[in-house]
Amino acid sequence: MAKKKFRLVEVTWIDSAFNQGWRLPKFYVPPAECKTVGYLTHDEKDFINVAMNVNDEGGWGEAMAIPRVCVRKIRRVR
Question: What is d(CA 17, CA 29) in angstroms, rounded to the nearest whole number?
Fold first, then answer.
C-alpha cells in the first residue's frame, strides 16, 4: 500500500478565553493566541484538522478541528 503523506505544520490561531470569578468592568479577558503543531489531515473551506499522530496507512489520531476564521497562520515545519 502506498504511504500517505501529511504535512507537518505549526498553526497560529485565536481561541476563546475564560476567567473565573467576578471582575471589575475595566478588567477583561482577551482571546488567547495559541500555537498547535501536528499533521494537517484536512484543509477545508470552514475548518482545518491537525492530528498529533499519523500512520503509514493514512490513518490519524488525536485530531483537533480549528475553525478557519480562528486561523491566523499555517507554517510548514521541515
Answer: 6
- Report d(CA 49, CA 47) in Å as an integer: 7
Q: Where are the beta strands (DSSP E) in 1-78?
A: 7-15, 32-43, 47-54, 60-67, 71-76
Instruction: Give CA torsion, residues 38, 40, 14, 19, to 10 deg.
Output: -50
C-alpha cell at 22: 467576578
Tell me the three state secondary structure of residue 68.
helix
- Paired strand residues for 75: 10
Residuewise pLDDT in 10s, the chain (78 residues): 456 789 999 999 999 988 888 878 788 888 999 999 999 999 999 999 999 999 888 899 999 999 999 999 999 998
What is the SS3 assignment for 4? coil
What pTM was estimated for this model as a whole?
0.84
